[in-house]
Automatic annotation (TrEMBL):
Superkingdom to which the source organism belongs: Bacteria
GO cellular component: plasma membrane
Taxon lineage: Bacteria, Bacillati, Actinomycetota, Actinomycetes, Kitasatosporales
Pfam families in the record: FtsX, MacB_PCD
Protein name, as recorded: Membrane protein
């Protein structure tokens, strides 16, 4: 009870200092809980949607038995006879044929794409009774003929659509128009998909290119019949193995698989950044308790002298940490729910609608947040508590601070140097690896070891680096600058720990900046060296035939190149089977992409019954020019193609691609199963580049799902995409930077308290308030720049090593983004200035006489 009272008294006596540490715990726990609540809510949203849209039993075609190849852009479908047989199965109340396709684009009268901007699909199909499970018609009526369409209410609201507006649907089979006859509202939350409905005949004709076919069958069970029994009955009626038959749960689980990977990436990436924030917060908490223990050394000595045991002193500090962890974690859990709601609002503004009605806070989320926050806080305070317990009564009564342990410092320094050396060696090994997959594991080890090593040897580095920074920066400030330097060097361990908190975040910023800049520079260099085409047409969907014709008819183009990827199994002369497919392109692709060959000529690969293979593939399977490879096309026949060229795989574009001509492909793949183009290229007639570019843009205007880019556009888009990704990562890393700033504030605030008498004496002999505040600000700037210098140096080392691994994948250019690095370094000085505002202000207000009288 005495320990608890002492801990409570000390906790509230230093509530200002504790508040800063509590904020670090709060932010870290909030990010973890916010991530868990956000991802759980998304899962709940999709679970409800999939459950509501799935019938009791769903029948879909099997790929091997399907009469349609999904590469064609048309969905796999089944004949109407399957619907008849399924409807006659025992236990079936009703069976309904449905048509659904996601390979469509819907535009309004202004040619604006009505689809989602967040990657959610546009879904077109026929209106069925099963849709009433998840939607209700709230305006107009269901489509009754080929000129009518119904849209979902979310899409109508987002794009200001109303009854009577005309929409154009662009499908693989062609374009068709219809006017909005109805609007349907989701009964559950729609995460952002755009949905349009047609009558059954129109859906079959326009989406499948054939009447009397369905993409799936919705089967409803009769009263008293379970889903599993119904599944068996329907499967028996259709014939064993003829179709895929799933229960409602199985269908929902199958649909969920499509988003699990995406959700997993979001969840673990955000938790990773939360972990970084926790790591930074550890330094803050260690620093806080170390300084509080140092300030209470005489008090601890008195407690020991009157009978308190080492264990009681230790427990007193740990109980304070426990209180801090509980308070910070409880607030963090509540803040985490707020963060999740905020993320949902942000996603909704971007087009992915998430309703707070589906807000999901599982019991494990607050438990995980509380445990994590409390455990991390208590463990962070363990070393200071242990150090407090080891102080002898007489030493504490003689000293104003805890005695330094020189032997422990030497051992720690040696361990840090060993770890840093081992990490440096691992980075070197990664940079010289022969395979990127092997080197990446060694790179990860090197990053961890060098980070831990730098944290441990931080106090040693502080003595050197701070002196160098001070010589450059502080000499101009005279005696005030020299005092700021001495204050920063007074306790190297404290300065090292404070700087390390900032170092971690900035090391990751520098590493990612180097990797991102190198990727852009490498891709740009690769485009300059290898891409000869003037124009590239590409989109999120395959290029439909009508868009292809529009491009081919564009004036000012010397040639247009089609590029298709096909599913196929290749059997090499050594008997090995590879199912990664093959690419078919026009012979002009050899002009559009300047690929080096290690044997043969690429133009020969576009000859009759010929192909090329990549150098890695040739080496792996012992293939050489003149060999014959068996190519079994999915949905087509088997060809025996002669290897006419081996392309060099030391590239980033089309690495490992195997080429053949489109004419050869047509011999072995039926016309109905030839896929639309994945991408198309254009070459302008000499001297007509600008006119051809403008003409091509105009020709592709009716198809907003595709982008027309020249090489300058392509490079800029690549740069923008990498920049957006980095900005998002920097935004997440900002949490760690914020916690690091709190650490600097806390260190300075406690340092000011620790030096109260000293500050009073300096003020008494003539130091002005302005000079005092400047001294504290300069001390803060030096500490911040110390952490920045270590972090940026470490991060550039990591980034350079990562680029060496990327070079094995064809990204050969190393580019250090000096403007970013210099900007971050200068920004760190402002971080130091900001962190010193409150401590400097409080120091300036200190009463001189009271300060001198302080014990």
């Amino acid at each position: 009870m005495t320990v608890l009272k002492t801990s409570m008294r000390n906790f509230f006596a230093h509530k200002g200092r504790m508040a800063l540490s509590a904020v670090a715990v709060l932010l870290s726990v909030a990010f973890v809980c916010g991530t868990l609540v956000f991802t759980d809510t998304m899962n709940t949203t999709f679970d409800k949607l999939f459950a509501a849209t799935s019938s009791d039993v769903t029948v879909t075609p099997k790929a091997a038995k399907s009469d349609e190849d999904p590469q064609s852009g048309r969905p796999e479908s089944m004949p109407a006879s399957a619907l008849t047989r399924a409807g006659k199965a025992e236990g079936v109340k009703s069976a309904e044929g449905a048509v659904s396709s996601m390979n469509v684009t819907v535009v309004n009268s202004d040619n604006k794409n009505m689809g989602s901007t967040t990657g959610a699909p546009t879904i077109a199909g026929n209106w069925t009774k099963n849709d009433l499970r998840s939607m209700q018609i709230t305006s107009g009526h269901a489509p009754r003929g080929p000129t009518e369409v119904m849209v979902d209410a979310d899409t109508a609201d987002k794009h200001h659509l109303k009854l009577g507006d005309e929409l154009r649907t662009i499908a693989v089979t062609g374009d068709f128009r219809a006017k909005i006859a109805g609007i349907a509202t989701f009964k559950v939350t729609n995460p952002g998909a755009a949905v349009v409905y047609f009558d059954t005949a129109t859906s079959q004709r326009e989406l499948l290119g054939a009447t009397g076919r369905f993409t799936h069958i919705n089967v409803t069970a009769a009263a008293g019949v379970g889903d599993e029994q119904l599944k068996r009955n329907v499967a028996d009626a259709l014939g064993a193995g003829a179709y895929t038959v799933r229960t409602q749960k199985e269908t929902a689980d199958e649909n969920r698989k499509g988003i699990n990977g995406f959700m997993g990436v979001i969840k673990y990436a955000m938790l990773g950044f939360a972990g970084i924030a926790f790591l930074v917060g550890i330094f803050l908490i260690i620093n806080t308790f170390s300084m509080l223990v140092a300030q209470r050394t005489r008090e601890i000595g008195l407690m020991r002298a009157i009978g308190s045991s080492r264990g009681q002193v230790n427990r007193s500090v740990l109980v304070e940490a426990l209180l801090l962890g509980v308070v910070g974690s409880l607030l963090g859990v509540a803040a985490g729910v707020g963060i999740a709601v905020g993320l949902m609002k942000v996603m909704s503004s971007m087009g992915m609608d998430l309703s707070t009605r589906d807000l999901t806070v599982k019991a494990t989320t607050p438990v995980a947040g509380l445990l994590l926050g409390i455990v991390v806080t208590v463990l962070s305070a363990y070393l200071p508590a242990r150090r407090a317990g080891k102080v002898s009564p007489m030493a504490a009564l003689r000293d104003a601070g805890t005695p330094a342990d020189g032997k422990a410092g030497l051992v720690r320094g040696l361990i840090g140097l060993v770890l840093t050396g081992a990490g440096t060696f691992a980075l070197y090994a990664a940079a010289t690896a022969d395979k990127a997959s092997d080197g990446s594991l060694v790179l990860g080890l090197g990053v961890v070891l060098t980070l831990i090593g730098f944290v441990i040897i931080g106090p040693l580095l502080a003595g050197v680096v701070v002196r160098v920074i001070s010589a450059v920066l502080l000499r101009a400030f005279g005696s005030v600058g020299r005092m700021a330097e001495r204050n920063a060097l007074r306790n190297p361990r404290r300065t090292g720990a404070t700087g390390a908190a900032l170092m971690i975040g900035l090391a990751l910023v520098a590493c990612l900046s180097v990797v991102g800049s190198s990727m852009v520079a490498s891709a740009t260099d690769e485009l300059d060296r290898t891409v000869g085409a003037d124009f590239i047409v590409q989109g999120n969907q395959r290029i439909v035939a009508q868009a292809e014709k529009a491009m081919q008819a564009t004036p000012g183009l010397a040639h247009v190149t089609r590029y298709k990827d096909l599913k196929a199994e290749l059997t090499t002369p050594d008997g090995k089977v590879d199912g990664s497919g093959i690419t078919a392109a026009d012979p002009s692709y050899a002009e559009d992409l300047h690929r080096k060959t290690t044997a043969g000529e690429l133009t020969a690969a576009y000859g009759k019954d010929a192909m090329s293979v990549g150098s890695d593939y040739a080496k792996k399977h012992g293939v050489k020019v003149g060999d014959t490879v068996s190519v079994a096309f999915t949905g087509g026949s088997t060809a025996r193609l002669k290897v006419a060229a081996i392309t060099d795989d030391d590239v980033a574009i089309d690495q490992g691609a195997r080429y053949m001509s489109i004419e050869t492909m047509k011999k072995y793949v039926p016309a109905g199963k030839i896929p639309p183009n994945q991408i198309m290229f254009g070459e302008a007639k000499k001297g007509q580049e600008k006119q051809a570019y403008a003409a091509l843009k105009k020709a592709m205007e009716p198809y907003p799902q595709y982008q027309v880019r020249d090489q300058t556009d392509y490079k800029q888009e690549l740069k923008d995409q990498v920049g957006q990704l980095l900005n998002m990562v920097y935004g997440l890393l900002a949490l760690a930077i914020i916690v690091a700033v709190l650490g600097v504030i806390n260190t300075l605030a406690l340092s000011v308290v620790e030096r109260t008498r000293e500050i009073g004496l300096m003020r008494a002999i003539g130091l002005s308030r302005r000079q005092l505040r400047r001294m504290i600000r300069l001390e803060s700037v030096v500490i911040a720049l110390f952490g920045a210098l270590l972090g940026l140096g470490l991060g550039m080392g990591w980034g350079t090593t990562a680029q060496k691994l990327l070079a094995l994948e064809g990204l050969n250019v190393l580019e250090i983004p000096w403007p970013t690095i210099i900007g971050v370094f200068i920004g760190s000085a402002f971080v130091g200035l900001f962190a010193a505002l409150i401590p400097a202000f409080r120091a300036g207000r200190m009463n001189v006489l009271n300060a001198i009288a302080t014990e």
